[in-house]
């Protein structure tokens, strides 16, 4: 079945290629991914309209860094947060709990899990926790003013959206790895 097929073999092959590079090259690559993530995340504040379309793409560089190496992914995640302090402080609540957390979770889950459903579930759980934490612990209106109190309908709607969104990002990750493999090999 589609969700239970193993998919991590290509990622493992790509990690082996990444591990052949020297540490300096790895750090340069992670810093490039960090800058790209910070610029894409900050685009929401700099370019109203089109920036909100670019902002979710900040997941990709963090996800790629985490797919290559979990420590480098965590480094890229925290460095992006530090860059956002300088570039766009208003994005400091959004990135660590949504975009960045999803990229970190999906990228790292490729190292731990082999089946598509497990990787999607890991991303779904982390993003769901991040959104629920923003909404109900920090009372930050990440979904707008319409969602201010907890209800099972709200939680179910958020879960459905988050599952589909994580699934989309897992498929995007697989496409990116296939394309990068064709470029490098």
Helical content, roughly?
over 70%
Discrete helix count = 9
Instruction: Tell me the fraction of residues in β-strands, as a range.
Output: under 5%
Distance between the termini: 30 Å
How would you classify the helix and strand content by structural class?
A: mainly alpha
Low-confidence stretches: none
Query: Can you write the helix and strand succession as a string?
Result: HHHHHHHHH
Please tell me the total number of domains.
Answer: 1
Main sheet record: none
> Average pLDDT, to the nearest integer?
89
Rg computed from alpha carbons, rounded to a whole number of angstroms: 16 Å
- What is the overall shape? globular
Number of strands: 0
Q: What report would you give on this structure?
A:
By secondary structure, the protein is mostly helical. The protein has one domain (2-184). Helix content is 76%, strand content 0%. Helix 4 (59-68) packs parallel to helix 7. The two termini are 30 Å apart.
């Amino acid at each position: 079945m589609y969700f239970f097929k193993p998919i991590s073999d290509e990622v493992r092959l790509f990690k082996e290629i990444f591990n052949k590079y020297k540490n300096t090259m790895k750090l340069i690559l992670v810093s490039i991914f960090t800058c790209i993530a910070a610029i894409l995340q900050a685009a929401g504040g700099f370019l109203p309209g089109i920036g909100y379309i670019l902002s979710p793409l900040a997941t990709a560089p963090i996800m790629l860094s985490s797919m290559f190496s979990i420590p480098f992914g965590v480094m890229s995640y925290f460095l992006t947060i530090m860059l956002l302090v300088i570039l766009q402080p208003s994005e400091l609540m959004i990135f660590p709990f949504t975009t960045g957390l999803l990229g970190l979770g999906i990228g790292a889950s490729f190292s731990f899990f082999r089946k598509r459903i497990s990787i999607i579930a890991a991303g779904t759980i982390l993003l769901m926790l991040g959104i629920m934490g923003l909404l109900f612990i920090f009372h930050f209106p990440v979904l707008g003013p319409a969602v201010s109190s907890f209800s099972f309908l709200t939680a179910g709607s958020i879960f459905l959206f988050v599952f589909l969104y994580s699934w989309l990002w897992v498929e995007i990750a697989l496409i990116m790895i296939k394309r990068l493999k064709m470029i490098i090999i």
